[in-house]
Amino acid sequence: MATEEHKVSGERLVDRVKELVKEGNARRIIVKNGEGHTLMEIPLTVGIAGAMFLPVLVALGSIAALASHYTLVVEKKDPSVTPAGELRNNS
Fold it and tell me: What is the DSSP letter of 68?
């Protein structure tokens, strides 16, 4: 599984998480504070709906008010693995 890290300010936290969810290739988003401590882990499933995601956004808004700098660790789906878990032949 591939991971990416994004440094964001508190005021951009909620917007950046929304963008990552819309991209659709993230499995999980981890929100860390400036010291590197995990504040929230957001598992993303294929069928996540807006109404189900709303409480997560409200919690993120509360977290964003606590500090000015955050790191988002995004675990992305591995494109070389099929949904059944079998390795895809790229040749």
Answer: S
